Amino acid sequence: MHHLDEEEKEIIKKFLDVKGYDPNAFDPDLLNELEADKEYQHVLTEYGADILGSDNYLKLKSFIQHGNVTVFEHSIHVALCAIKLNRKMGVGGREREIVRGALLHDYFLYDWHDGEAPGNIHPKLHGFYHPGIALRNATRDFALSEREKEIIRKHMWPLTVKPPRCREAWVVCMADKYASTLETLKLKKGKIRVNYA
Predict the structure, then answer these.
(1) Is the separation of the CB atoms in 30 and 81 below 8 Å?
(2) 16, 173 in Cβ contact below 8 A?
(3) How many degrees, rounded to 5, is the angle at CA 46 between CA 40 and CA 49?
(4) What is the pTM of this model?
(5) d(C-alpha 176, C-alpha 174), whole Å
(6) For 139-150, what is each residue's pLDDT tens digit?
(7) CB-based contact 6:14 (threshold 8 Å)
């Protein structure tokens, strides 16, 4: 288990900017536990099998998101965190839409680190523009509910300026920030142990 040093705790506190935040409550092992949980695996495959098995979605395995974590792995992490947040905090969001929106939130289908990559039309402003690109790709490839679209469109709030308008989008927005923090600080490495495809 990786223990956070004081510098890492301060980085997380600044990133999350939460008053009264307890850095000792930030659990780097959470994603490992969620990946190993059979119930969470079942929920992911029950609601996301068509997404996880599609040829275009599998392309996400070839694009790095944070550190050594691929966009595919990151999306799984976010979906698992979102399920847990929704359940543990009693949010009451619809799990099907949470899972599907989380899996597709970064479905932009290019290497965002490469400014010349096809599809990377705003390389220096990826954080601002990729939700719209992901939404366009997702609506092209999958049938989405309005809440699933809202999740994809607003997952980068506050960069998206307009805040999420449904519980499901708030849950995925927070799960994305949690998983991204773990991945960016390299507290969570890539390599999902379960083959969801």
Answers:
(1) yes
(2) no
(3) 110
(4) 0.78
(5) 5
(6) 999 999 999 999
(7) no
